[in-house]
Each structure stands twice: as C-alpha cells, then as structure tokens.
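U., I forgot to send this yesterday:
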Amino acid sequence: MSDSENTKEEMKIKEENDLKPSTSGSVLFPTEAKFSNIKNKQVRVQQFQKTKRELKKAKKEVKKQRIRENAPKKTPHTIESLRIKDETTVTNLNDEENELIRDDLENDEFSDFYRQSYEPKVLITYADNPMRKTRIFGREMTRIIPNSKALYRNRSGVKKIVKSAIAKEYTDIIVINENRKEPDGLLVIHLPNGPTAHFKLSNVFITTELRKSHKLITSHRPEVVLNNFTTRLGLTVGRMLGALFHYDPEFVGQRAVTFHNQRDFIFFRHYRYGFDEEGKKARLKELGPRFTLKLKSLQKGTFDSKYGQYEWIKDGRRHAMETSRRKFDL
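Result:
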C-alpha cells in the first residue's frame, strides 16, 4: 500500500472517530453552532453582526439597570488588582508597627538629603563612544535634573569616575549605557557610600521624537512625584530617585516629573501643568523625554562588579525568581 493510500485510510478513521454520537446528552444543532458552519459568506457576516448588536444592546440594558438601582460599579480584575501582597509592604509609615522601618529610613544613605542638609550635584556620563540619541538623552537629563552636568567618560572606568566625582563633591552619578545605537541601561550611584542601582532602560523617546520643543523646558526646579512604591525595596528605590532632584521645587515654573511604578516598571514623565480660571482643574502638557525603568539589581556601596555585595538582584533566567505573575517587588 502506498503512502497516499495510508494517509487516506488514516483520515477516514479519524473522521469516523470524530462523528461518534454524543454521550453527554446534549446535541449541538447547526443553528446553534458557530458561524463558521455557515458556508455563505454574506449570510455568515449578517448573522455575526446581528449577534454582535444583540450583545451590545443587552450590555447597555444591564448598565442602565445598574444605574437605576444605584448599584456600585464593578471593578475589572487585573494583574494589579489581584496583586499578591508582599511581606514587606508598607501601607502607612506612621503606624506603630512600622517604627523599625522609620528608624531605618531616618538613618539610611539618603537621610541627609531628606533632612535638607545638602543640595544634590549630579554627574551624568555615558558608555564609551555614545551615539547621537544617547548624547541627546544625556543633555536632556541635565535640563530635567537641577545642578547636573553631562561629561564624556574618555574611556575611564566607573570606579575611577566614582573617585573623581567624590573629590569634586558630586552626590550622585548616572551612567547611561547603550546597545544597538539606543540607550538601554541606567546605572545610578549615590555618593559617597552608595547604594548603586542598575536599571534596564527602554521605550526612550527624546523631545524631538515626541514632536516637542526643548525650549519649553525652563530652568526652574521641578516638583517630584513618586507614586506606588509600596514595599521596603520600593521605598529605597523611590528615595534614591527622589534624591537626584532638589528638595526645594520652584512652583512658579509649574514643572513636574513623575516616577510611577506599576508592575515593577517605573514610568518616567515630564510635564508642565496649568490651571483653569477657577483654579480647580489642571491641564498637563508633556515636555519630554519619556522612558521606562526596570530594576535589575541594587548593590551596597558604590559600583563594584567583582566584589560588590548585592541587597537585591533579579535572576537573569526567565521565571527563576517569579513564583507568580501577580507578585511584584517594588
């Protein structure tokens, strides 16, 4: 018997098995089946559109009924709403049970900044031979972060840069890494004693790509909004990002930068806001740049890739540390 005959015989046996009578007691008639059983394309489309209209009408009736009964609006289930609570989640720092956390924050590496004992001075540098977009991104960061300066590395190692920056009284270093002509990493080092955070950088849009003008960015110190950093690790990361900016914003400039954490992705936005004549509603205008951060590691002390001690590190293997998609670290 040839291969084609064997194939035909197998298909015949498969069809006979598929046509076995139902044992569940219910029969699906052609009128109740899916529209794929209707061979005529025009009739099939008409039936589909008719069913779609009926479902839409029924949905509107349910909504009207809920409004008439003043029933509470149902909140959809999302990964964020079904989030597994982390053991280190801090709901209110003023609670008595969080006294130890308050003591830690009052004595951590950023406590001097939040006591307003010094003004931050930030050095922004790049990987070796940065491409055009990376250089523009660094210059735009200097317009966002007050008292910051962008310099080339000149093939200096990060450890050497740290020593020089401490000698010149810089308080923080930002190193912008790139890959395939795109900025793809951010190394934030708090001086003089750390910590060091390594972020994955993605979705970078500079001002020109957003069709905005850099002339709209004034020299006023912006307000800083840190949102949804709820765990103990999240508090440290939020305080580290906040310590890059001046503690005394100039409200007359009406500039605001936001670090919004959602599912461990930190979304950065830069806005100018304005109020209506009544002073109740605010209007936002994005200035740029725009980017997204994802924490890869948090290291004690300044940068040391060989002997550094890590407080937290994300395993590079997929799902190695992820026991659930609904568990987040920040």
